[in-house]
Amino acid sequence: MEQSIQTKSETLLISGGHNDPLLPKLIDAINRARVIDITVAFIRVSGLKLLFGALCDALERGAELRILTSDYMDVTDPQALRELMLLKDRKADIRIYENDGQQSFHMKSYIFIRTHDNNFIEGCAFVGSSNISKAALTSGHEWNLQVECSAPIETSEARQFQAIRKEFQSIFQHELVHELDHIWIDEYIKRRKTTQLVAVDSEQPFELPSPTDIQLEALQALQASRQKGYQRGLVVLATGLGKTWLAAFDSEQSNSNRVLFVAHREEILIQAQRTFVQIRPNAKNGFYNSKQKVKDSEADIVFASVQTLGRREHFEGFDPEHFDYIVIDEFHHADAPTYRNVIRHFKPKFMLGLTATPERTDQADILSLCDNNLVFERNLIDGINQKLLAPFKYFGIHDKFVNYDEIPWRSGKFVIKELENAFATHQRAKHILTHWLELKQQRTLAFCVSKAHADFMANYFHKAGHKAAAVYSGSIMRRHEALNKLEQSDLDILFSVDLFNEGTDLPAIDTVLMLRPTESKILFLQQLGRGLRLHHQKEYLAVIDLIGNHKSFLIKPVVLHNVHSAKEAAHQVASGNGQLPDGCFVNYDPEVINLLEKMTRPPKDTTLKQKTIRRRNSIPDRRSKRQQDKIADEYQSLKTLHGYRPTATEFYHYLNEINKPFKVVGEQFGSWFDLLATQDDLSQAESKVVQKHGHSLLKQVETASMTKCFKMILLSAFLELDGFERPPTTRQLAETSWHILKRQPELFAREIPASKKDLKPDSNGWHSYWKGNPIKYFSNKEDDPFRLEEGNFICKETVTPEAVVTVHEMLQELVDLRLEEYSCQYKPS
């Protein structure tokens, strides 16, 4: 490779302003560099925001990054310094020149080096007048000299470049230079003066962002919820309406000193940390994940990966009451065991669940984790109607060259390799290109099923004369570089795989091309939401979506038309009478309309798989086979709609919406898990549990009589205390049950008699009351599922160690169902 390197040396002037800004040249250099050295007199939030993504990508690919700034004239934003700590957490070397008042610090240099096998290839430096601020990098009259050199290093420009590097090294090790840390930032905030800022920089001093109208409504609702006594709450905000900003605003509003933010992807955590830094610049923050484990004393706000913190050896290292405020982002994932571990362990003053999922049936079980407290909800339609999101024009194109009936469907998803083979054809690619050329705007983000599929599509479009690239984890072109090229019109279309579903702001995207099935409403909404951000160059979002012959595609019209069933959506598509947000438009190929109608018709042969299900109380032989088929069809419709096996609570709400009581499940199949067995929707572990416990322990919980909610609160406490592994004492059960009830103030007020409301959770009076009911009524009779033994509440059935987790999860599903059934009696219709 070195033999192909040509000698290159030149010095250029970048004059700044709108015609020759420095920013694009910096971004391009960062994207290609192996070594990055930056020194500037001051850094503003506005400028760091423009470079941050590229710098993160550089660190991710292993680049070395060193940044030196100063407190000269107190211009540097403390918020920017907090954000620099995020880069430091990722192994960047961040230092601060602490001015002693004797000598000014006013240098600006950006140095970049490319290497191959640790050998120098080329260097580039920008030296001049641009600090890191939006004005200096984009529109200000700033002069910067660009010095470039390539191997071999024998030119005068090369010597200049080496001199710049040498001087950087010298100032980087100056005696007044210190490693940046939160303690230094704290002291800087205390002594900083802002009176002179406008005189030295064209930008106004950084001002804290303010909430949008929707966020203000949500903040008021959250405050009111806490005043009622709720300790948990769920907020549903469509993608683009600022869930993370809301969490930061509310943590400040609630005067919470110690905050935990939990998510499942590092990208979401980074974005959240940057948001909180802007709202709460005085707070120290840190990460808790597989690479970094900030100690509880080192940070006011901790951003944690649930994959790490959700493990017992990690969450038990924190006192349950350490955090005042906990945020669980993307709360639709919260039913996973790792999330439940975090939720069970910590006892904050308030826990906020956040999700963009709009439908009540999607929230059924996760809402129980927030004590059934849906605080606030605004969906995609609300966002568009309030002009906080861009309107869309949707085009449903017939995916006529793929027969989805021939592609295996397993566990609610297509087999990726089979999809990849079906998609990578020139015939289909030509079909896509034709419609894209007709309907696209300026900047397109395309969603593909695999890396091979993305590469195939990018190559096909490139050969057709269009500027196209593929980006995914491990791709040659990095995410931020690709997005920058797309925004700068250096790319027409970007084919991606799983990089832009969550946690990424892409306001310049004006066309979304959906080339793969989306097996759930959540995924479809996330992908749609990538293009709904407002942008000054975007009038609307064009959505080009390929629709094939499989029920999973019914998700699309259900979401777009904001209805509850595929049948209703197909009817609205066929009639053209669907309700859409302001300024929105949908158009389907005639073949797609026919497909949608066909897929919502019941199949001619709906024979259930014949299964022998052993049960203690057999269902009468004369039960209606037709009724069984109808319930099974409804179950499959909901499963297709969600893209996963629905929970009992989700199916309960779905049946209610079509005016069917959930009790028909027991009448026709015996129990909820028996229904799942007929649909082949039990795992091997679950099937074993059903065989051993399905018609004793699980059936008793599913059918237990309830004049109050106490039995299910008791079982919630039993599960929270890991009762199958460590049988709790009645006192432990009583105290935990009190806390569970207290988190739900309306339930506490309605269910607990006035004479008991003032009892403390650890008091003898409360213990005695709870022993009388419900402990007694779940452990007194011979056929009750529990027994009392030396003050411990013990399950009568032996649950083997390997089955504990499965039994726990299945029982939790039934407890959630029974509590929701009970609570719905008191909810307004």
From TrEMBL:
| Stretches assigned to the Helicase C-terminal domain | 431-574
A molecular function GO annotation: helicase activity
Pfam families per UniProt = Helicase_C, PLDc_2, ResIII
Instruction: Identify the CDD domains for this entry.
Output: DEXHc_RE_I_III_res, PLDc_N_DEXD_b3, SF2_C_EcoAI-like
Name the UniProt record assigns to this protein? DEAD/DEAH box helicase family protein
- Name the residues that span the membrane: none
Q: Where is the Helicase ATP-binding domain?
A: 224-376
Q: Which InterPro entries match?
A: Helicase/UvrB_N, Helicase_ATP-bd, Helicase_C-like, Helicase_Restrict-Modif_Enz, P-loop_NTPase, PLD-like_dom
Annotated keywords = ATP-binding, Helicase, Hydrolase, Nucleotide-binding
